[in-house]
Specification:
alpha+beta; 20 helices
C-alpha cells in the first residue's frame, strides 16, 4: 500500500507511474491487489484529508485516462472516496499485473525500491514474463484421472474434427486406439489426462476433477429492458457444449438495403455469420483464465451477442492483433489452444479475430467491439446496420485498413478514443472536431452522403456566430438574453450538450463586451443587449 498526503492535489502522471509500480509489485508478491491512499500521511499515518478530484465524475474519469496509457488498458478495480472524521480520504484499488505481462505506464515499467518509485529492473520484468511460460494450467496432469472420465461421444466428435483437419492421414487415424489418438491430437500427455482433456472431452460429472476451476458456459437471453427471459448452462465436454449453445442463439434472417449495391431490393442474410459466433465462443474457451474460477457467458439481445471470459487480453490491444496479422508468440493456455487448433475449433488468435472483423466489414455491420479491461475480455457482435452513414463509409472506402475502420467503428458506437488514436485518424483526414466531440471529416461526409449531418456536427464557427449576433442587434436595436439564445442555439454544433451551448453563448457575449462591441442593461433577472455606440 502507498499512502500520500495530497492535501491540495496530486499529479495525474505520477498516479499512472504508481499504478504501474504497484500493479507489478502486487504480481511479484502474489497479492490480490494493491492500494494508493490519498489524504493520509505516509510515515505517521495521520489523516490529513485530500482535495484531489473533488467530484465523483472527475474521479471516475481517471479509470479511462489510466487505461489509455497502461498495458492492456488495465485500470483501477475501484476508486473509493469517503469522509473520515470530517476529512476526505481516497483509496485507489489496483489489480496485480496478469501472469506473464508486466505493466507499463506510457511505455515505461515502474517498480518500488522501499518507498521510492523506480524503474522495474530487468530481472523483475523477466520474472513476470516467465510466469506465462512456466505455468500452463491447461497442460497440468490430473492425478488419478483416467480415460474413463472422458465422454465417448466427445472422443468420437474429436476424432471426426481431427480427421477432417488431416485428410491426408485418414487411413492412419483409423488404426489409432483412443489413447493413441488423444496423444496425437495433443489432448493427453503420454496417456495421462490433462485439464485440457477434461474441459474438451470430460464427462459432465468429471468437472470436479479441475476444481476449484470450473468448466461452464452460460447462455442468457435478455430483452431490450435487460430483463432475463431464458437461460441455460452447459458444462464439459465443451466440444459438444458449443453446439448446444450455438443452437440456442436465434440466428434469424435480417433484411436490409446494402448501400454498396445501389438497389431498392433488400438483401436477406443471417443476423450473424456462423463463423463469427463460433470463433468468438471458441476463443473464449481457449483463452479463459480458468484459475480465476469463472464461467464463460454468452448474452443474447434482439440485435447483438456479447461473449465474455475471465482473463486479460494477452496481445494487449485489438490494434496489436490487427496490425501484426500474425499469431501470438505465447498463449495463456498453450496446450489447450494447440489442441483446439489441431481440431480446427479455432484459428490462431491473429487470423481468427481478423476474419471476424472482415466478415462484419463485408456485411457493412459494426465491427466486433472489444472491452478488455479489469482482467476480462468481452466482445460484442452487432447483427444489423446501426448507422447507414458508417455503412456508406465502408462501402465507398475499400482501401481503409482494419485498424482505421476499428477506430471509426468506435466513433459510431459512441466509444471514446485515446489522444493517440484520434491523432492517427486526424492525420489521415478521416475526422474533425475536438475531443470528446469527434465527427467524420468533410471529405468523407461528402463522399458518403453525410453533408447535412457534417454541417450540423460542425456548426457555425465562432466568427460566424459573432457576425450573426451583431447583424441581429443592428437590425433590431436590442435583444434579450432569451432572444440571443434562440438566435444562436440551432447554428451551434449539435454535438454540444445544452449546457455547453449555454456556456458558449455566455462566453461569446463576454468576449464581445470586453471588446466594447456590445453592452447590456440589466434589471433584476432581465438583461437586454445593444450595439455599443
Amino acid at each position: 500500500m502507498n499512502s500520500k498526503k495530497a492535501e491540495n492535489g496530486f499529479n495525474d502522471h505520477e498516479l499512472g507511474q504508481y499504478f504501474s509500480a504497484l500493479s507489478n509489485e502486487a504480481n511479484l508478491k502474489k497479492k490480490e491487489c494493491a492500494w494508493i491512499v490519498l489524504g493520509i500521511e505516509n510515515s505517521s499515518h495521520k489523516v490529513t484529508g485530500s482535495n484531489y478530484k473533488r467530484s465523483r465524475p472527475s474521479l471516475d474519469s481517471l479509470k479511462k485516462s489510466i487505461a489509455d496509457n497502461i498495458t492492456g488498458r488495465i485500470t483501477f478495480t475501484e476508486i473509493y472516496s469517503f469522509d473520515y472524521y470530517g476529512k476526505r480520504v481516497i483509496m485507489f484499488q489496483i489489480p496485480p499485473a496478469p501472469k506473464g505481462i508486466p505493466i507499463a505506464f506510457k511505455g515505461f515499467y515502474y517498480g518500488r525500491d522501499g518507498e521510492s518509485l523506480v524503474a522495474l529492473n530487468i530481472q523483475e520484468i523477466e520474472k513476470i514474463r516467465s510466469q506465462q511460460i512456466q505455468q500452463d494450467w491447461s497442460a497440468s496432469i490430473i492425478k488419478n484421472a483416467t480415460i474413463k472420465d472422458l465422454d465417448p461421444k466427445a472422443i468420437a466428435k474429436a476424432r471426426e474434427l481431427y480427421t477432417n483437419a488431416h485428410i491426408n492421414k485418414i487411413e492412419e487415424i483409423k488404426t489409432w486406439n483412443d489413447i493413441t489418438f488423444l496423444n496425437k491430437a495433443k489432448i493427453t500427455i503420454k496417456g495421462k489426462i490433462t485439464n485440457t482433456a477434461i474441459i474438451l472431452l470430460g464427462k459432465e460429472e468429471s468437472e470436479y476433477l479441475i476444481s476449484p476451476s470450473v468448466a461452464k458456459i452460460k447462455w442468457i437471453l435478455k430483452d431490450s429492458n435487460d430483463i432475463e427471459r431464458d437461460y441455460t448452462i452447459e458444462t464439459c465436454p465443451f466440444i459438444l457444449a458449443v453446439d448446444k449453445i450455438y443452437e440456442k442463439i436465434r440466428n434469424l434472417k435480417y433484411r436490409y438495403i446494402n448501400p454498396e449495391y445501389k438497389t431498392l431490393f433488400p438483401e436477406e442474410i443471417n443476423t450473424y455469420e456462423p463463423y463469427v459466433i463460433r470463433e468468438a465462443l471458441h476463443n473464449a474457451i481457449a483463452h479463459q483464465d480458468y484459475t480465476m474460477c469463472g464461467q464463460i457467458n454468452v448474452v443474447e439481445y434482439d440485435d447483438r451477442l456479447i461473449f465474455s471470459n475471465k482473463g486479460s487480453f494477452l496481445p494487449g490491444s485489438i490494434e496489436n492483433v490487427l496490425e501484426s496479422n500474425a499469431p501470438e508468440e505465447s498463449y495463456r493456455n498453450q496446450f489447450l489452444a494447440t489442441a483446439m487448433v489441431g481440431l480446427r475449433m479455432v484459428d490462431t488468435i491473429g487470423s481468427g479475430i481478423r476474419k471476424m472483423y472482415l466478415f462484419q466489414r463485408n456485411r457493412l455491420f459494426p465491427l466486433p467491439d472489444y472491452n478488455i479491461s479489469n482482467r476480462k475480455v468481452q466482445v460484442t457482435i452487432i447483427g444489423k446496420i446501426i448507422d447507414v452513414n458508417y455503412a456508406n463509409l465502408l462501402a465507398q472506402n475499400t482501401d481503409l485498413s482494419l485498424v482505421n475502420i476499428e477506430l471509426l467503428n468506435r466513433i459510431q458506437l459512441g466509444k471514446s478514443l485515446s489522444d493517440q488514436e484520434i491523432s492517427i485518424l486526424r492525420k489521415k483526414h478521416l475526422i474533425e472536431g475536438r475531443k470528446p466531440h469527434i465527427f467524420i471529416a468533410k471529405n468523407i461526409a461528402q463522399k458518403t452522403g453525410q453533408r447535412i449531418s457534417y454541417s450540423k456536427h460542425k456548426g457555425l464557427h465562432d466568427k460566424g456566430c459573432e457576425e450573426l449576433l451583431l447583424k441581429a442587434l443592428k437590425d433590431h436595436g436590442k435583444l434579450s438574453k432569451p432572444d440571443i439564445i434562440s438566435l444562436l442555439w440551432n447554428v451551434l454544433s449539435d454535438i454540444l450538450s445544452d449546457q455547453q451551448k449555454k456556456d458558449k453563448i455566455k462566453n461569446l457575449l463576454s468576449k464581445l463586451k470586453r471588446e466594447s462591441k456590445i453592452e447590456n442593461i440589466s434589471s433584476g433577472r432581465q438583461s437586454e443587449w445593444f450595439l455599443k455606440q
